[in-house]
Specification:
It is built from 14 helices and 21 strands. By secondary structure, it is an alpha+beta fold. Strands 2, 13, 14, 15, 16, 17, 18, 19, 20 and 21 form a 10-stranded antiparallel sheet that branches. A 5-stranded parallel sheet has the order 6-3-1-7-8, sandwiched between helices. The longest helix is centred in the C-terminal third of the chain and has 18 residues.
Amino acid sequence: MRFVFYSSCSNYFDPKIVHIRTLPSWADEWSRVAAAFPQHQFVIATMLPAMFLLDYDGERVCKPAGVECVLLEGGGAQKIAEQILALKPDVAVAASFWMTPYDWLGLQDAMAADILRARGVRVVSHRAETQAVCFDKARTHDFLEKNGFNCAKAVYVDYDMFWAERKKPEARDNVYREYILNEISKLKFPVIIKDTVGLSSYGMEVVPTMGAVRNYLESKKFNSGRLVEEFLDGPQFGTEIHVTNRMQACHPAQHDKIIDVFPPLLYSVNQYGICSPKQSVKLGPLTTSAFKCQELRGELERLARLLDFEGIAQVDLVFHNDKWHIIEINPRLSGSSAAIALIKGKTLPRILTDFALAAGGLQGQDAAGGCCHPAQHDNSCEYDSGEGACNLWQEKPPLYLNIKFPNLNEAQMKALYALPFVHYLCQTDNDAAKQRREMGFCEILIGGGANPRELCVQLEKIEEKFPEIIEPAFFDTAKKMLKNSQSRAKI
């Protein structure tokens, strides 16, 4: 069969300025998958920065062996779908990523998927309606509240209505503004004010008092719709849901929905209590009895059914007042996707290939050869059709840590990757950035041991071997998280 893995980008992107490097490279990982399935054709159709699919050096794309590569021209969902159709796919798999300022690339890929489905192509992608619900944070909140999921109490503020009297001189009083401010005053403070369509936590602010809310809404920061919601204290987590619609060989029109919820990863937060993508340290998977993880698993399975997920979706969570609350839903690949795949005993290209096999009714098909678990650090993946090397929902699964470094040179990255407990590196460099935090970072995945102490020893080895490249703040945060996880494990 002919498998096309695709993604789009709605931004102008200059590959001479922004560079993304990974170890192992995506070219190596896709080459391994293609070599393991010589009976199928693999095509990557994407747009730069081509996250999770291709490596590039400037404008030169590094082509995986045995994989056809096509750079899409973009121009909207219809044109993207036509470009994919020209590749004659039997199965198309969306591998949507994200870009600032708007987290809407998954929506564009989903609209293209709906067109492909209408033209008879088997597609692995979330529906456009699913993406639309999750793209708008106000709409997401309404969905969660309507369907009985725990979430923060919130008030949506419509910018145009909040200043409606400016456009209607006959209006003496703004009744809408009076109502909205009254509703916000009923919330428990502090509150978080967030853009309803922005990417991740960028631009969010923790606001301590009603007076500070008024000041914000009267400032230039308030220039579009905003969601004002109660700040939920408690440890913050993230996880992914992998949903496979497996075609039944005897009934091609029927599918079995298989929902695989990954156990939660603990996220560090900044001084404002918000998880920042550029600063967060991640630890997990955590299934200790201190957290009601089986209850979470059931709720996320229910979420996946209600939103009709297909493919990979990421969910942000907080454990507040002994209950799980959903913060945000992102029906796309995430910053944790590659790490989660490795922890599951596979690589992300292999997981995406599994989706393609299932959609094509080939889920029982074995690859040409097998290899061992990536934690053994030969950078390969399981090429059987099984689920992974271990049950990650057991009481004490192997622990991994995702930690960040300042930007490293190529030699430093290779030296880190040579350590037997380092499984993955990904670095972003932005040559045009002026502020240190905008220049990028290098994140690595380490671990695989049975307890937090082993991770502490691994951190100490990195500090001892590479004292000149570590950033103490990240390492101090990681050590505190490990210490706290040890305490929770004793509860």
